[in-house]
């Protein structure tokens, strides 16, 4: 009888969206993008050269993000396709992390996300605060 292979279990975290808006999984970063009345956890990487889309500004029509590195315009619809499965209830979000070997470190932080500002809105002074969450903040299940 052949040996049965166990399928890896999905890793799940719980985020407090009132305190955190960014998830680091190994070398990949995801940020909470607010669009069309929904919050989505999307990949923070421009498809052109990998620039941080969380620091992108929306175009005047609100349908695209302008990458801060080279000005490449990325459609919000395309960015939405990179979202992770997430269920939100109030300020709490349960997120299913991407498949991996399970050993990637996971951090949940808060940083300034310019992509959520209306076009032309000024950004807050001071940039990011980089507050890292402790193990209790991002409970892995």
Which SSEs are present, and which pair or pack?
Blueprint: E1 12-16, E2 22-25, E3 28-35, E4 38-43, E5 57-58, E6 64-66, E7 73-75, H1 76-80, E8 86-89, E9 92-96, E10 106-110, E11 131-132
Antiparallel strand pairs: 1-9, 2-3, 2-10, 3-4, 5-6, 6-7, 8-9, 10-11
* Rg calculated over all Cα atoms: 16 Å
Number of strands: 11
Low-confidence stretches: 125-141
Q: What portion of the residues fall into strands of 2 or more residues? A: 25-35%
Shape designation? globular
Oligomer: single chain
Note the total helix count.
1
Mean of the pLDDT scores? 82
Order of helices and strands: EEEEEEEHEEEE
Helix percent reads: under 10%
What is the CA–CA distance across the termini?
Answer: 32 Å
For the sheet with most strands, the description reads: 5 strands, antiparallel
